[in-house]
């Protein structure tokens, strides 16, 4: 895939690589799951590529619809936030145990 300005990848190249329709990517954008910028063509930020590939796998390999992908993404973000909070609380607990 050709990298564009500011590490953006043409959406049509991602679609060709994964053999998917560009409409799927636009549908993900409607759900707020990916961000597409439009210049002369639709571009996707390179840092979104791994997330996009996860969504492609969920949809095309596991037959999960867009609503399901949205729910899964929401739950994964909540899980990650909870894990970060637990790590922070464990670190605080260690600090207070070591200083008491």
Given as residue ranges, the uncertain stretches (5+ residues, pLDDT < 50) are none
Fraction of residues in H or I helices: 55-70%
Alpha carbon gyration radius? 18 Å
Distance between the termini: 56 Å
What class would the helix/strand composition place it in?
mainly alpha
| Biggest beta sheet attributes | 3 strands, antiparallel
Q: How many independent structural domains?
A: 1
Q: What is the 3D shape? A: elongated
Record the strand order, biggest sheet: 1-3-2
Please tally the β strands and state the result: 3
N-to-C series of helices and strands:
EHHEEHH
**Overall pLDDT, averaged?**
92
Blueprint (SSEs and pairs):
Blueprint: E1 8-10, H1 11-18, H2 22-30, E2 36-38, E3 42-45, H3 49-61, H4 66-98
Antiparallel strand pairs: 1-3, 2-3
Give descriptors for this structure.
100 residues, mainly alpha, Multidrug-efflux Transporter Regulator, Chain: A, Domain 2, 3-stranded antiparallel sheet, 4 helices, elongated
Report on this model:
This protein is mainly alpha-helical. It has a single domain, classed as Orthogonal Bundle (Multidrug-efflux Transporter Regulator, Chain: A, Domain 2), CATH 1.10.1660. Helix content is 63%, strand content 10%. The protein contains four helices and three strands. β2 and β3 form a beta hairpin. The longest helix has 33 residues, at 66-98. The radius of gyration is 18 Å and the shape is elongated. The model has no long low-confidence stretch (mean pLDDT 92).
